[in-house]
């Protein structure tokens, strides 16, 4: 992974964030006329602010993705055997789903009672679909790392939207773009790494080593 490829992943992730936030925000505005971004009036201005917010979501998701790759590399160095780290990610993912549901359950009056179980189920199903695609494109060892990133990673990144005064629309407005950005990054990673692994450049080795044990 060289700087050119990393920069490509960065700006395209921001673009995914802008588009997905704009689409999500527009759908929410159509279904709920009272929804806008921080009370801003005017459809065009509000859509522009949504796109700018999406750029920030994309940058935030990219930082989270880089943090996960770093954590993955360190964990593999500590556990030595990749299946131990994979198993830990699997258990953490299951725990994260229930923790997220419980956190939503605590705010069920502000977020509507049904969301505490519907949203975790939808995220899990969507993450499973992306993980299946990832395993078909790479190998079966990518299943649980992909689920971990898409479920636990997305939930941690979206945690600020779970304050007591948030509603369902605000929660969805943040989670959907972050999930889309993480899904894009995990599906693009092995495509960017393949040329680097085929060459002899030393700069590709650290990231490639991480991904040969689960993500590519």
Automatic annotation (TrEMBL):
Spans through the membrane: 49-71, 83-102, 114-133, 142-162, 168-187
Alphabetical list of SMART domains matching this protein: KbaA
GO biological process, one term: positive regulation of sporulation resulting in formation of a cellular spore
InterPro entries: KinB-signalling_activ (IPR024164)
Keywords, alphabetical: Membrane, Transmembrane, Transmembrane helix
Name of the protein: KinB signaling pathway activation protein
Organism: Paenibacillus darwinianus
């Amino acid at each position: 992974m060289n700087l050119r490829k990393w920069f490509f992943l960065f700006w395209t992730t921001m673009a995914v964030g802008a588009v997905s936030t704009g689409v999500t925000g527009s759908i929410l505005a159509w279904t709920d006329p009272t929804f806008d971004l921080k009370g801003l009036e005017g459809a065009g201005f509000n859509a522009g602010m949504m796109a700018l917010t999406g750029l920030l979501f994309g940058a935030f998701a990219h930082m989270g993705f880089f943090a996960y790759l770093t954590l993955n590399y360190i964990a593999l160095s500590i556990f030595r055997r990749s299946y131990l780290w994979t198993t830990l990610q699997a258990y953490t993912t299951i725990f994260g789903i229930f923790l997220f549901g419980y956190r939503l359950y605590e705010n069920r009056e502000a977020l509507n009672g049904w969301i505490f179980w519907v949203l975790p189920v939808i995220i899990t199903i969507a993450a499973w679909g992306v993980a299946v695609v990832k395993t078909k494109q790479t190998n079966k060892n990518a299943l649980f790392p992909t689920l971990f990133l898409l479920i636990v990673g997305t939930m941690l990144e979206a945690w600020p939207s779970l304050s007591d005064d948030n509603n369902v629309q605000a929660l969805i407005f943040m989670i959907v773009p972050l999930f889309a950005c993480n899904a894009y990054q995990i599906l693009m990673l092995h495509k960017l790494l393949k040329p680097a692994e085929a060459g002899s450049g030393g700069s590709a080795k650290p990231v490639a080593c991480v991904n040969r044990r689960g993500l590519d």
